[in-house]
Amino acid sequence: MRKFSTFFSLVLIVWTLNLNAQLPAPSLVQNSFNINCGESATFEIDNPDPQLTYLWYADDSGTDLIHTGEVFETDNLTINTNFWVNAVDGLIASGVLEFTNAGASGRFGPSQAQIDAEYTGTSLDGSVTVIGDGIQEWTVPFTGTYTIDAYGAQGGFAGGGQAGLGARISGEFDLIAGQKVHIIVGQQGGQYQANTRRWQSSGGGGSFVVLEGAADESDILVIAGGGGGYAHNRATNNVDGQAGPNGGNGSGNTSSSNGGSNGSGGLSSSGGNWGGGGGFIGDGTTATSRGGRSFLNGGLGGTGTVADVEGGFGGGGGVTRTLSNNTRRGAGGGGYSGGGAAHSTSTLTGTTGGAAGGGGGSYNNGLNQINESGIRAGDGLVVISYDINNINDSSPLV
What we know:
disordered C terminus, mainly beta, 23 strands, five-stranded mixed sheet
């Protein structure tokens, strides 16, 4: 009897992906092989660019990463198989992404033109779209673990000294390629000073990093509270962006200057000249329009009688510029829960004394958390970092 050995012929094909329109799709020396069952094949990039990183996937959506490099050798295969390859900027492949306010100030965030100019030549070039009045939309490039580090903005300060500093909130998150993330980078509050008796300061904006379509706390990644506005006498520790979820109370020791809780906005004094900070869900309260807007309502800072005393983008409370003497007070900072505004009947004497707004609260849904109050001076910042070597490979190659 004669013995026969049977071999099944397999077809392997690599398709190119172009997930970033700013870069050319990669080309291969050979994009298909016919092999016998149980054999492997080796694919190579044709004329690889040393400034790019080449990512190989087992799916056409670019979520199941199986290899990184210019040369890819398959496992021994037993079925017809397709692969996909994509080229990314080497800075993106393993690096740090810094989201800024792109030079914007006041109650509105950056425009698309400002963002494009700010990120040109960086790893965010062409990757950020402005939504609404300054929310930055970024798409997760790879499935894997990311560290997100957010800093709230400082409040405004008049008469010297230092306003409330923004909180720092950091955590690790498992994100999926293609997810859209909405980011507000908080902007510093403003100030007005006519003389030693007329100092008014608006609240700093919180920095928000939230999944697209957010409806409740489960969609929050991190929120870092902004600092409250300062007016001459930094008499309360509540003025800094808070490490916990509640907004700080404004000076005045009355319930009408309390910070918000559970995502609500901060309260303002009965006179309505200094706005409470906006929260995640609720706007800051005020008898006028000085309260900061919540994240879900767009995150604008509260209005001011002049641009100098608008609340910072990210829900900072705004201020009425009053010409009355002994009006040294500050508005609340934005955050997960807004900071309370200084109370209008706080006792002020001559050229001494003052009342500060409370800092905004913070929120963190991540692992390996860092939650710190009173860290950031100036405008806020959001930093997202990751390492391509830690990208998840959720499905084995077959």
